[in-house]
Specification:
Belongs to the class-II pyridoxal-phosphate-dependent aminotransferase family. Keywords: Acyltransferase, Heme biosynthesis, Pyridoxal phosphate, Transferase. One of its GO terms (biological process) is protoporphyrinogen IX biosynthetic process. It is built from 14 helices and 14 strands. The chain is α/β, with parallel strands linked by helices. The protein folds into two domains: 121 residues, Aspartate Aminotransferase, domain 1, CATH 3.90.1150.10; 234 residues, Type I PLP-dependent aspartate aminotransferase-like (Major domain) (Aspartate Aminotransferase, domain 2, 3-Layer(aba) Sandwich). It binds 4'-deoxy-4'-aminopyridoxal-5'-phosphate.
């Protein structure tokens, strides 16, 4: 086997398809969000650009309360936590954060993990492998972190058509009442920006005695009067068995978690290898996340401003004849429909217009639906939006991309 050729050919294949990932090298600047310094690959001097695709949806990563809490924890407690949760790495800030998260979701317990990815992977792989004769029923557009967790569990997996409750019911009926069943789905799907009919899905979970597992990664902090997610907004939060979330998007820091009944949380805490065998977050991370969750429980201003910005951007794209996808959420996807073209549009926006929006290509989205995904935040003002629309129109006309949605 020629290993070098194998690796090189694989990368050449990605490049030929326009799917090779290039990470923009950014330097965030406190007080300037959504602007950032961009360090060009060719070694030219860094320059200021506007980021239009950040998952720090509300700018909480630079909120003074978050920074102050993190600074205080660093100067008071130092760098790392000192171990896994089991071996000296459990900190009072982790415990306080778990209590805060449990309360956010109206649950009795929560469990902090390294990231949202790890929380999904660990929880589904643990439940799927330990529950006897378990079957996991998974929405066809679930995130990779859930898919990998389910696969690793080796539990039987049934896929239900995206957000199709009739199809879900047919599968549940077919499986019968005796088998252990987990219905895994998301609230806001991050690439199309559509939202699951959570109440109807929960009706079915209750009717067929299935555990409901809801990924609210793109919704926590963003929806509901206290930022508890779409389930809170829809008044059904108390009926979800396991809520999974992240601290890295609207909360602006890093980390993932589940919130559920104490017996479920204790089970994952006790059997989940992705929780047990890894070091815990530095106290400063827990402090920052705690400040962010507490702030967004009290304050609606960021959510209201974000919603207005997303609606305005969608409206302005539509008015300019740009093929913006309809979505009932904070995510604004603009269809391109071709991987190479999508990359080219993103490059031109960055190199010629100082606008950064990452191309979204296969396998993140199906081939032929490549797109630019905008996540306007409260700080994307009218001036930045004017510049974005003008730049998009210029690039669309240069590249001859179809304007029909
Ligand atoms: N679930 C969904 C739906 C996601 O989109 C992501 C990441 N983008 C994750 C889980 C993983 O979350 P994290 O970034 O905190 O690892």
């Amino acid at each position: 086997m020629n290993y070098n050729n194998f690796f090189k050919d694989a990368i050449s294949g990605l490049k030929a398809e326009g799917r090779y990932r290039v990470f923009a090298n950014l330097e965030r600047i406190v007080g300037k969000f959504p602007k950032s310094l961009y360090h060009p690959e060719n070694g030219e001097a860094p320059r200021e650009i506007t980021v239009w695709c950040s998952n720090d949806y509300l700018g909480m990563g630079q909120h003074p309360k978050v920074l102050e809490a993190m600074d205080k924890a660093v100067s008071g407690q130092g760098g790392g936590a000192g171990g896994t949760r089991n071996i000296s790495g459990s900190n009072h800030l982790h415990v306080a954060l778990e209590q805060e998260l449990a309360d956010l979701h109206g649950k009795e317990a929560a469990l902090l993990m390294t990231s949202g990815y790890v929380a999904n992977w660990t929880t589904l792989s643990t439940l799927g492998s330990k529950l006897p004769d378990c079957v996991i029923i998974s929405d066809s557009q679930n995130h990779n972190s859930m898919i990998e967790g389910m696969r690793h569990s080796k539990a039987e997996r049934r896929i239900w058509n995206h957000n199709d409750v009739e199809h879900l019911e047919a599968i549940l009926k077919d499986l019968g009442p005796e088998r252990a069943k987990i219905v895994a789905f998301e609230s806001v799907y991050s690439m199309d920006g559509d939202i699951a009919p959570i109440g109807q899905i929960l009706d079915l979970c209750e009717k067929y005695n299935a555990i409901s597992y809801l990924d609210e990664v793109h919704a926590v902090g963003m929806y509901g009067p206290r930022g508890g997610g779409v389930a809170e907004r829809d008044g059904v939060m108390h009926r979800v068995d396991i809520v999974q979330g992240t601290l890295a998007k609207a909360f602006g820091v890093i980390g993932g978690y589940i919130a559920a009944k104490p017996e479920i949380v204790d089970f994952v805490r006790s059997f989940g290898n992705g929780f047990i065998f890894t070091s815990s977050h530095p106290p400063s991370i827990a402090a920052g996340a705690l400040a962010s969750v507490r702030h967004l429980k009290e304050s609606n201003a960021e959510r209201v401003a974000q919603k207005e910005r997303a609606e305005t951007l969608r409206e302005r794209m539509r008015a300019a004849g740009l093929p913006v996808m309809d979505a009932p959420s904070h995510i604004v996807p603009l269809m391109v429909g071709n991987a190479a073209m999508c990359k080219e549009a993103s490059d031109r926006l960055l190199f010629e217009h100082d606008i950064y929006v990452q191309p979204i290509n296969y396998p993140t989205v199906p081939r032929g639906t490549e797109r630019l995904r905008f996540t306007p935040g409260p700080l994307h003002n009218d001036e930045l939006m004017d510049h974005l629309i003008d730049s998009l129109l210029a690039v669309w006309s240069q590249l001859g991309i179809s304007k029909a949605a």
